[in-house]
Amino acid sequence: MSRRTSPWPLLTIANALDIILSHTEPREAIEVSLSEASGLVLAEDVLAPEPLPPFPASVKDGYAVIAADGPGEYPVVGTVTAGRIPEFSISKGQIARITTGAPMPAGADAVVMVEDTLLQPRKDANGHEIVKIEKTVATGQDVRGVGYDIEAQQVVLSKGTVLHAAEIGILATVGCARVKCIKRPVVALMSTGDEIVEPTTRNLSPGQIRDSNRSMLMAAIRSLGADVVDLGIAGDTAESLESHLVSGLSKADIVLTSGGVSMGELDLIQPLLQSRGTIHFGRVLMKPGKPLTFATVEHEAKKRLVFGLPGNPVSSIVTFFLSAAVCIRKMFGYANPQLPQVSVKTKADLKLDPERPEYHRANISWDFEQNCFVGTSTGAQASSRLLSMCSANALLLS
């Protein structure tokens, strides 16, 4: 009897990632509105067309004063509110009521907040209210000068910046209502296997299991900001698999399959990919996820990337984050598509695989007493046990 062996050499995850990234290019840039930009990556620098504020502005509600006048009682010769330009100026011995964000009246060089003043029960000969200034202030105190927040022509956001809530606010601040970003990648996803049925199936027939991988991976893809095409479930026949694959190649930049990449008689994904494109690796030295496969396929004059993920749920999601997620981030235009890494102490010794680097599902948090991150295992680590991922926020690697 001859022993069945895989034709694919075992690659390290680092070597596998190098191959994946060498075949991955950012998508083209498109112009989008602010309402569409959240989660996208800037394709060009954004400059401020004017300074912010464009005028000296008060930081507090209070009184615009001449700092050199010092404490004392002064007539209030006018009021300035936000959004209105003062049509008066103040001279030595005068003050003006001012609100937060309002332009400073000419002649004033500081603001005394209202809590440091006292309204007097009388008016002067011109009918002006009298206010007592009870505190000495320095020139420029509580005043934002022209360009204090943003200077004219300042680069406020650089190419490659990921646009989250604060960045969207900056774009609105500088009047950038439309912005050039890297287009969202499109990822098509299919599950494989005659035993797999839709999650909506109420009563399982003997041998059937509900498809957890597709729903899980769709959520993971969307969490990265990519668009998803659901290809459904392909049966364990070459015809069904090819039909689903071709549909994905026609609709997406990346195709993910789950299941069918091991060495069983019905594991037909690798032969299919070999027939239609180039498999760059078919095994990775890791646990879980050893059968992870990556291929490129030319379809309709465009290069598509295909990831064959293992069928066990934990293997599927772990290999997704360690390979396909990095690919998606590069396609998105991330300057550094790699996922962040930190050093962690474990609360207890972990029994790890002695032959393959094992990605142990864990929850990490900051320990203020030890001044470091501490990781706690999520329990039994079988590749079929999806519960091990539920509370996990990290993969531990020794």
Q: Give the terminus-to-terminus CA distance.
A: 38 Å
**What is the helix content?**
10-25%
Q: Let me know the number of strands.
A: 24
Give the amount of beta strand, in percent.
Answer: 25-35%
Computed structural class: alpha/beta
Largest sheet: 6 strands, mixed
* Low-confidence region ranges: none
Instruction: Average the pLDDT over all residues and give the rounded result.
Output: 95
Spatial order of strands in the largest sheet: 7-4-6-5-9-8
How many helix segments? 8
Shape: elongated
Write the layout of secondary structure elements.
Elements: H1 13-22, E1 29-33, H2 34-37, E2 46-47, E3 57-58, E4 62-65, E5 72-80, E6 95-98, E7 110-113, E8 117-123, E9 129-133, E10 143-144, E11 155-157, H3 165-173, E12 178-182, E13 186-192, E14 196-197, E15 209-210, H4 213-223, E16 227-234, H5 238-251, E17 254-258, H6 269-276, E18 278-281, E19 293-299, E20 302-309, H7 313-332, E21 344-346, E22 360-367, E23 372-377, H8 387-390, E24 394-396
Parallel strand pairs: 5-6, 13-16, 13-17, 14-15, 17-20, 21-23
Antiparallel strand pairs: 1-12, 2-11, 3-10, 4-6, 4-7, 5-9, 8-9, 18-19, 19-20, 22-23, 22-24
Helix pairs in contact: 1-7, 4-7
